[in-house]
Amino acid sequence: MIRLFVADLHLRPERPDLIGAFLGFLGKQAPGADELYLLGDIFEAWIGDDGPMPGLEEVYAELASLAGHGTRLFFQHGNRDFLVGQAFMDRIGATLLPERQLIEHPGGPILLMHGDQLCTDDTEYQAFRAQVRNPAWQQAFLSKSMEERMAIARQLREASKARGMEKSDAIMDVNPQAVAKAMQDAGVDRLIHGHTHRPAVHRNQIGDGIGTRIVLGDWDRSGWYLKLDDRGFELIDFPID
Predict the structure, then answer these.
(1) Numbered residues of the known binding site for substrate
(2) What's the pLDDT tens digit per position in 184-229?
(3) pLDDT bracket for residue 139 (50, 70, 90)
(4) DSSP at 3
(5) Which residues are annotated as a binding site for Mn(2+)?
(6) Cβ neighbour number for residue 39 with a 10 Å cutoff
(7) Average of pLDDT values for 136-147?
(8) CA dist., res. 174 & res. 160, Å (int)
(9) Nearest CA to 206 among 108, 77, 103, 98?
(10) Where are the alpha helices (DSSP H) in 167-232?
(11) In the predicted model, is pLDDT for residue 27 greater than 90?
């Protein structure tokens, strides 16, 4: 079985190069896979399934086509696209995953996460995350007009960028204890996540010789994806023109 994993594309009309790169990925690499996992922040923002981001219609169509030709699609919420819902899943033929998902593999089960919940040193962000993941907050947000939602989303993005510039790299990275606990609670020694924009393979995450954490890269000057098959994994990058 061949599985592919991507995260943190932050697709938006202002970056046609990213859109083109992802369409190329969907047309070339993805059709050979049995499963494609979209592990959050695929979209720069999402204000509801009734208002999908404009300018990405070809991406939506290509995802649906890929699913229609037999590649199983899975979507996990990120901190930018946590309002993606079942209607959009039905549109592209994907399955919506919980924020912690186990997949079986010949080498043992693997835990999938977006990764933002592991950044526990950033207490300000964790409080914000708890607020916007609250069903009552989401229901209130989705009940607003499209214009109001767009304005709120824009304000939230601008505030997030401003706060991010004030925080140290260490605070915005994962907490080692949170990583070890997540893996131990799930009973796994392998974890795949995105969010931090720091692609790498980290060993010894639980103890000496135990625990491998694979971090997916964000798409900017390069595109990143993880290829996992029965023999092992490969973290792959390619230039974005």
Answers:
(1) 79-80, 122, 160, 167, 195
(2) 999 999 999 999 999 999 999 999 999 999 999 999 999 999 999 9
(3) very high
(4) E
(5) 8, 10, 41, 79, 114, 195, 197
(6) 26
(7) 96
(8) 17
(9) 108
(10) 169-172, 176-186
(11) yes
In which domain, by residue range, is 17 found?
3-239
Residue 201 near residue 185, CB atoms below 8 Å: no
Tell me what the mean pLDDT of segment 69-74 comes to: 98
Determine the Cα–Cα distance for residues 38 and 127; give it in Å rounded to an integer: 25
Domain tally, the chain: 1
Residues 76, 114: contact at Cβ < 8 Å?
Answer: yes
112's tokens: 């999938």
CB 6 within 8 A of CB 113: no
Q: What pLDDT is attached to residue 140?
A: 96
Q: Which amino acid is at 154?
A: R
Residue ranges of the annotated binding site are 8, 10, 41, 79-80, 114, 122, 160, 167, 195, 197
Phi, psi of 95 (to 5 degrees): -110, 130
**DSSP letter at 41?**
-
Predicted confidence at residue 166, as pLDDT, reads 65
CATH code at 209? 3.60.21.10
Question: CA 189 to CA 184: how far, in whole Å?
Answer: 8
Which regions of 92-154 does DSSP assign to beta strands (E)?
Answer: 94-97, 101-103, 110-112
Q: In this predicted model, what pLDDT tens digit does every residue of 82-107 receive, in sequence order?
A: 999 999 999 999 999 999 999 999 98
Mean per-residue pLDDT, 24-41 = 97
The token duo for 47 is 């204000």
